[in-house]
Amino acid sequence: IHFYKRLLISSMQYNSVSLLKNVSDSLLRSSKLGRCLSSAPLTIVRREEGVEHITLANPKTRNALSLDMMKKITEDISRAGEDKTVRTIVLRGEGKVFSAGHNLKEMTVETSYEYHMEIFNTCEKMMMLVGQVPVPVVGVVTGLAAAAGCQLISSCDLVVAAPSATFSTPGAAVGLFCHTPGIPLARRVPRAVSGYMLLTGQPITAEEAYNAGLVSRLVEEDKVDDEVKNICAAIASKPRGVITLGKRFYQQQIEMPLSAAYPAGGRVMADNLWYKDAQEGIAAFKEKRKPVFGHTQDKVEG
After folding, report:
1. 3 state DSSP class of 71
2. Residue 129, SS3?
3. What is the distance between the alpha carbons of residues 142 and 165, in angstroms, rounded to a whole number?
4. Most buried residue, 117, 139, 181, 190, by CB count within 10 Å?
């Protein structure tokens, strides 16, 4: 009897140790996986000939604009805008989806109102930055841009799309109307189009988006990269300081009544004339030569 008792106790001890080891190994694997996932970049950034390419790199979530993702995009755009060698920023999504919008898992009642407001305040900061950054931002869409993803595209200065692209603001289908995505969308396309997208939640095709003015250039998918290069090269051939001034006033005058926009525009043009690069461009035109721009906002003394 004592022999069998000792055998039973020994077996139980072995099984307990084995179980603890299995649990420990499982936790270790889980911890390693967690660290691996948390260290995976949310965006991929590369610089090429003065073009900052920012790619949303979380295709498993359909490049959802989580709080962390929006903070990272904001950081990437801000850093690029501060670099005088950057002439254009290009935004695109990895995989078949540009972005499916906010991460709804962050928007349950298990989180707080304050956390929800942090999401939307961060989103506002990111969207406003796209318009405020001193170089043009080009959005590239070859798949779906939905909800806040469509909002981000609507905020870009220029949009290049392939025929496979679709655009939608389907929030009402899950009980959360696309209130903020509608803000830049309504300023980009006619009310008949934005109203249709917001109230029905139905997507529009790339061709419909092009005809409505949401898309700047619609080209075959295998020509998208070439079109983006052509746009960036055209921008790079202009003085950086002048493009910065032009983008800033363009954004401002959209919100002005016509009676205010014209006198403000006249003052900006007169100011622009005193830029060294403006005078260099005029001199080059008169002398029938190629201008040599300094790409600054320095002015002629006078």
Report:
1. helix
2. helix
3. 5
4. 181
pLDDT digits 0-9 by tens, 86-136: 999 999 999 999 999 999 999 999 999 999 999 999 999 999 999 999 999
| Contact present, 172 and 228 (Cβ < 8 Å) | no
Q: For residue 207, give Cα distances in angstroms to 55, 150, 231.
A: 24, 15, 20
**Is 41's pLDDT higher than 70?**
yes
- Which CA distances in Å does 52 have to 45, 76, 140? 7, 9, 13
- Residue range 131-187, pLDDT digits in tens: 999 999 999 999 999 999 999 999 999 999 999 999 999 999 999 999 999 999 999
Q: pTM value? A: 0.86
The string of pLDDT tens digits covering residues 55-89 is: 999 999 999 999 999 999 999 999 999 999 999 99
CA 188 – CA 197 distance, rounded (Å): 13
Q: Taking Cα atoms as reference points, which of 242, 122, 270, 147 lies closest to residue 201?
A: 147
Give the E-state strand segments of the chain in sequence order.
43-48, 51-56, 88-93, 97-99, 137-141, 144-146, 158-161, 166-168, 204-205, 217-218
Beta bridge pairs of residue 99: 145
Give the distance between the most distant pair of CA atoms in the chain. 112
CA distances from 97 to 63, 139, 166, 271 (A): 7, 13, 9, 43
Other Cβ atoms closer than 10 A to 216: 16
